[in-house]
Design a protein that fits this description.
By secondary structure, the chain is mostly beta strands. 4% of the residues lie in helices and 32% in strands. Among the domains are: 43 residues, no CATH class; 39 residues, no CATH class; 33 residues, no CATH class; 57 residues, no CATH class; 114 residues, Jelly Rolls, CATH 2.60.120. The strands form ten sheets. A six-stranded antiparallel beta sheet has the order 18-27-20-21-22-23, with no helix packed on it. Strands 19-26-25-24 form a four-stranded antiparallel beta sheet, with no helix packed on it.
Length: 464
């Protein structure tokens, strides 16, 4: 008999002959030897398994000295128990020696009781159960330090208790340290290579702000705290027009009396100085304010070493008929008091102007122009249609006219206040008064009564 084989527990029948029973018993032995692989006619020195009341207790594997070679076969090889999975033999149980585990294996339960897994196998090679800190690898060797060194991107320091406001810096090559907070408002100042930075006062040293330190238009209101620009902070002549943007230096930004004459200022606080005061030097390099004088006074110098003063604009007494004027001829010179000469008088002092006027015109005004100057007096002659009827009048600066009016025949009536009258009788007339002297003549105010007719000729002698 050979595998595959089977066994029929329904045979032999109880009525079978001994020969049949003998054959089937022989078949049973063949079945067992083939099924369990028992060697024929060989003494078995050890039991294959142990069975107890509760079931299978143990299996005894002989040492075959080789791994399982057939798929599905379980075989002992020395201290290892191997199983062939159809591809190769796998060790399922092994002695406590170094073993090679191939493929993906998962330990779902239990405790690893072996030695540390080496870094070449994905472990650390270290027992870190008692370590606290930062692990690192150097040439494949794991180690644990309390801090991460600068060579690995750390600081090498324990800053867990370092106070707020500290600043990190290198105190030497590769060594990180913490600089304690400085005074509020200080800035971090470098001291160059080979030296540690320090906190420093941001206030400029006395006289350190020079023109070269300021970019054009760099000084703005927002850049200056109230009252912090003091005399000591400004180098002489340091604030130029180019350094200041328009209207950015306000009173609040300057300490009292901070901009001295040496800085281009006055060195004084003039915030309460009265309107109309005048600045002057009361001593060398010292600016002061002279209070306003009486209206109409002028500022009079009193010479070197003395302060100016307000004085009345009066001249010394002079003889009669003298005027203060430049020279009577020749080049310009300082004015003096002298008598008038012909050249001092205007070239044109008289002007005759003639015009016509329709006396039937309604009452109104009449401008007579052409004098070339503003007259101060005049003489006016008026005729009507070459008739005898007419008038002549004269007036001075007050424009209060006087004159004579002719009527029919050689009869004259006095005029008082009128500069001209043309009377045609029967209540028909015009009367004129001087309204104003103008820059080029004068303006008459004319009143018409009745119904006069005709054209009047008005001739005026203007007098400057």
């Amino acid at each position: 008999m050979a595998l595959p084989t089977s066994i029929n527990n329904a045979t032999p029948l109880g009525s079978a002959s001994p020969a049949t029973i003998d054959d089937q018993f022989r078949d049973l032995k063949l079945f067992l030897t083939d099924l369990f692989g028992v060697p024929n006619a060989t003494n078995i020195s050890a039991n294959v398994m142990t069975v107890v009341a509760g079931g299978l207790d143990s299996i005894n594997f002989a040492n075959s000295g080789a791994n399982a070679a057939v798929a599905g076969e379980l075989q002992r090889n020395g201290a290892n128990l191997t199983f062939h999975d159809g591809t190769s033999a796998r060790t399922t149980v092994w002695a406590e020696t170094t073993q090679t585990v191939s493929g993906n294996k998962t330990f779902s339960a239990g405790v690893w009781n072996g030695t540390a897994v080496g870094s070449q196998y994905g472990g650390t090679g270290q027992n870190t159960s008692a370590n606290t800190g930062v692990p690192s690898i150097s040439s494949g060797t794991w180690s644990v330090s309390s801090t991460l060194s600068p060579t690995l991107g750390g600081t090498g320091q324990n800053f867990s208790a370092t106070a707020q406001g500290n600043t990190l810096y290198f105190s030497s090559a590769g060594t990180v340290a913490a600089l304690s907070p400085g005074t509020s408002g200080y800035f971090l100042k470098t001291q160059g290579a080979g030296a540690n930075p320090v906190w420093a006062d941001a206030t400029p040293a006395d006289g350190s702000i020079t023109t070269a330190k300021l970019a054009d238009s760099s000084v703005t209101t927002a850049k200056i705290s109230d009252s912090n620009v003091t005399t000591a902070k400004l180098a002489d002549s340091s604030i130029t027009t180019a350094k200041i943007t328009d209207a950015n230096i306000t009173t609040a930004k300057l300490a009292d009396s901070s901009v001295t004459p040496a800085k281009g200022g006055t060195g004084q606080n003039f915030s309460t100085t009265a309107q109309g005061s005048t600045l002057y030097f009361s001593g060398t390099g010292t600016v002061a304010a002279l209070a306003p004088g009486t209206s109409g006074q002028f500022l009079k110098t009193q010479g070197a070493g003395a302060n100016p003063a307000w004085a009345n604009a009066t001249d010394e007494n002079q003889s009669a008929n003298l005027v203060k004027s430049g020279p009577s001829s020749g080049a310009a010179a300082a004015p003096t008091y002298r008598a008038l000469v012909q050249a001092d008088l205007p070239a044109t002092r008289f002007k005759v102007v003639s015009t016509t006027y329709d006396i039937s015109t309604a009452s109104g005004t009449l401008a007579i122009t052409g004098s070339g100057f503003t007259p101060t007096a005049c003489i006016v002659f008026t005729t009507i249609n070459s008739a005898v009827t007419g008038s002549y009048g004269f007036a001075g600066t007050d424009k209060g006219a006087k004159g004579m009016q002719s009527v029919a025949g050689p009869v004259f009536n006095a005029m008082n206040g009128q500069i001209l009258i043309v009377d045609q009788g029967g209540g028909a007339n015009i009367i004129a008064t001087i309204s104003s002297y103008d820059s080029n003549g004068m303006t008459l105010s004319i009143t018409k009564s009745g119904s006069p007719t005709g054209t009047a000729t008005i001739t005026v002698l203007f007098i400057l």
